[in-house]
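call fold(seq) -> C-alpha cells
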Amino acid sequence: MKSEASQTLRLAFPIIIGELAQMALHLIDSAMVGAISYKQLAAAALVINAMNIPFVIGIGMTISVSQMVSLANGRRDAQQVSHYLFNGFCLCTLTALVISFTLLFGKDYLRNLGQDPEVVELAIPFMRLMGLSIIPMLLFMTLKQFADGLEHTRTAMIFSLAGMPVNILLNWLLIYGNWGFPRLELEGAGWATLITRSMMFLALLFVILKHKTFQKYIAVSRNQWYFKGQTWRELLHIGVPSSLQIGMEAGAFAVSGIIIGTLGAVAQAAHQIALSSASFTFMVSMGLAQAGSIRVSNALGRSDWAKIFVIGKSTLITALIYGTLCAITFGVLRNHLPLAFNNNTDVVGLAALLLLFAAVFQISDATQAIGAGLLRGIKDVKTPTILIGIAYWVIGIPVGYTLAFHFGMGASGMWLGLILGLTMASIFLITRFFKMTGRNQV
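ret:
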C-alpha cells in the first residue's frame, strides 16, 4: 500500500506544482488588484465566477486526452497515442473557440446578475480579456494532459512555474502603470493573463513537436494524424461527462458566489478570498486525482483490477491525510490569510468566518476529487455524473440558498450548503469506486 501511495505521489508531485502555479496566478491577480480597492477585487471575483463554469467544462474536455493516451500507453501502442493526441487537440481547439466566443459575445449579461453597478462596469473589460485567454490556456492544458498521460508530468510543470514571474512582472507593469506603461488596473491584469497564457502554450507546443522525448509520437504523424469518428466518440465519452462533473462542482461554487454577490460587494470580496484559499488547497487534491486516474487507466489497459483497487485505496488514504492537515491549517490561520488580499475590516472579518467553513469541507473536498478521478480512470463516467449532480444541485445549492435567505444566514448559509454538497459527493463517489472494483475482481 505504501509503495503504491509513493508511486502516485511521485507522479502527482509535478502535476500538483503545475496546478498550484496556475492557481497562484489567480491569487496574485486577486492580491494585486485587491491592493487598489475591494471593488476591483469584487469585479475580479464576479468575472471568475461567471466564466468558471464554461472554463472548467473546457478543462474537463482536455481530461479525455490524458485518459485515452494513458490507456494506449498501458498497451504500449505509440501509434494510438499519437492518434489520440491529434484528434484530442482538434477537439479541444474547437471547444476552446466555442467557449471563448460565447463569453466574448455574452459579456454584457453581467449587468443582469443583480451585482453592484460599479463592480459590473469594472468587470466587463476584464471579462473580454479573460475570455480570449481561455483559448491559449485550454490548448496548453490539452498538451499538458498529453504529456501527463505518458507520465511525463514535469514537462508542463516547468512552463507553469516559468509563467509565474512573467505574469507578476506584467501585472506590476500594467496594473500599476510602472516603467511608463499605462495604469490599467484590473484590465491590466487581464492583459497580463492573456500574454502569459499565450507564451506558455507556444513554449509547450514547441517542446512537444521538437523534443526527443515525444519524437516517436510525432514521427508517425503522417499515418496517425487524421480525423476518425470513432476516436472522437471515445474522447467525447470521457470528455463530456468529465466536463459535466467538474462543471457541476465549479458551477455550485460559481452560482454561490453570484448569489452571495447580491448581498453586496463586501460579501462578494470576502467570498472570493475564502474561495481562492480553498481553491489553492484543492489544486493538490486535483493533482492527486489526476495522478491516480492516470495510473488506474494505465492498469486498466492491462486489465489489472487488483492493481486498480490498491492504487485507489492508497490514493484515498493520502487524500484523507492531506484534507485533515488543510482543515487544521485553515482553522489556525483564518484571521491572517484574508490580510494578504485586502485590509478592509468588514471584508477581513467575514472572510475569516468563511474560512472556518472552508476548513470543515477540506476532507470531503479532497476525497470527492479523488473518487471522481479514479472512476474516470476505469472509464466509469455516466453514473458518477448523475451522483455529482444530485450532491450539488439537488442537495447542496438548494439547502445553501434556503439557509442564506430564508433563515437569514447570508454568506454563511451558502457555505453550509457547499459543505453538505461536497460531503454527499464524496460518499457517493467513493462508494461507487469500491463497488466497481469489487465487482470486477470477482
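The mean pLDDT is 89.
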